[in-house]
């Protein structure tokens, strides 16, 4: 029995070499910072155990999570409408949804600040009710929500579009309302996309810097703290904090990616 060897595909090999440069640069940068930090473990531990660093990490992750929760509540209905309904001006609405992706982050921050500052259209009336956004936790969440919204809405809309419309129509002919068909058919079949959109939005939210500092320099999220330490204490301290958040993000998102993979396998079985 002779073994069959497939001939190497020159196109795939070329593409792999070209695309591999991106992976190489990422690996090189990670190795560079990792080796530098592992060369001084006591200093790494002392920075990682600082209460300000721990508080900043928790604040960043929590604010990003709150932004995602708001997207689940507000973004899911919008994604469904964009997936299922054709109406005049839909392209304009889709352009508005995508706008935060294209805007410079400082511009996004200005837009959020104008809306939510103490004399802003939204900030002033909410301020009378006790909700303050300037240099406050709510301001961080608002900025994160704005910049991460396209990632969630577009991913979830793609998931809704993949659910066959006739499944909803069958349910409605059997007496189900549109909302009941959405809740019992569309949502369960779109869980993977909703989860993927949430992970993407969360990652985008916790990585934001410029938009956040425009409205809330304090309390400091991790990006703001790294910038502050870089300008006041230098590269060593700021790079150590950066290494800590790299490790946390890598572990968290690797776990979430594994979960997404399991959801993909579940979808294939369904």
Protein architecture, described:
The chain has about 270 residues and is mainly α. The protein is about 80% helix and about 0% strand. The chain is built from 13 helices and no strands. It has helices at about 10-40, 40-50, 50-85, 90-100, 105-115, 125-130, 135-160, 165-175, 180-190, 190-205, 210-215, 220-230, 235-270. The two termini are about 40 Å apart. The model has no long low-confidence stretch (mean pLDDT about 90). It comes from Methanoplanus endosymbiosus. Keywords: Cell membrane, Membrane, Molybdenum, Transmembrane, Transmembrane helix, Transport. Belongs to the binding-protein-dependent transport system permease family.
Quick tags:
single chain; 270 residues; mainly alpha; globular
For the sheet with most strands, the description reads: none
Number of strands: 0
Mean pLDDT: 92
Number of helices: 13
What is the H/E order? Answer: HHHHHHHHHHHHH
Transmembrane segments: 12-38, 58-83, 95-116, 136-153, 209-228, 240-260
Protein name: ABC transporter permease
Membrane topology: Multi-pass membrane protein
Pfam family, one: BPD_transp_1
Task: Give a summary of the structure in a few sentences.
The chain has helices spanning 10-38, 41-48, 51-84, 90-102, 105-116, 123-128, 137-162, 165-173, 178-189, 191-206, 210-215, 222-232, 235-269.
Strand-helix topology:
Blueprint: H1 10-38, H2 41-48, H3 51-84, H4 90-102, H5 105-116, H6 123-128, H7 137-162, H8 165-173, H9 178-189, H10 191-206, H11 210-215, H12 222-232, H13 235-269
Helix pairs in contact: 3-7, 3-10, 4-7, 5-7, 7-10, 8-9, 10-13, 12-13
């Amino acid at each position: 029995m002779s073994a069959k060897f497939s001939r190497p595909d020159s196109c795939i090999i070329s593409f792999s070499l070209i695309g591999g440069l991106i992976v190489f640069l990422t690996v090189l940068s990670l190795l560079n910072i990792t080796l530098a930090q592992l060369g001084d473990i006591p200093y790494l531990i002392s920075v990682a155990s600082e209460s300000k660093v721990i508080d900043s990490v928790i604040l960043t992750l929590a604010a990003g999570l709150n932004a995602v929760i708001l997207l689940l509540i507000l973004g899911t209905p919008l994604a469904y409408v964009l997936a299922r309904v054709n109406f005049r001006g839909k392209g304009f609405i889709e352009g508005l949804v995508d706008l935060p992706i294209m805007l410079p982050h400082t511009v996004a921050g200005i837009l959020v600040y104008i809306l939510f500052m103490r004399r802003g259209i939204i900030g002033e009336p909410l301020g009378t009710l006790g909700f303050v956004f300037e240099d406050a936790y709510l301001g961080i969440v608002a900025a994160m929500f704005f910049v991460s919204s396209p990632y969630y809405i577009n991913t979830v809309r793609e998931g809704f579009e993949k659910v066959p419309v006739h499944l909803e129509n069958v349910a409605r002919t059997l007496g189900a309302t549109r909302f009941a068909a959405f809740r019992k058919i569309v949502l369960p079949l779109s869980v993977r996309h909703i989860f993927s959109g949430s992970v993407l939005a969360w990652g985008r939210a916790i990585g934001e810097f410029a938009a956040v500092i425009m409205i809330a320099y304090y309390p400091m999220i991790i990006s703001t703290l790294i910038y502050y330490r870089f300008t006041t204490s230098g590269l060593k301290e700021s790079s150590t904090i950066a290494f800590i958040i790299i490790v946390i993000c890598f572990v968290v998102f690797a776990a979430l990616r594994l979960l997404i993979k399991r959801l993909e396998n579940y979808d294939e079985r369904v």
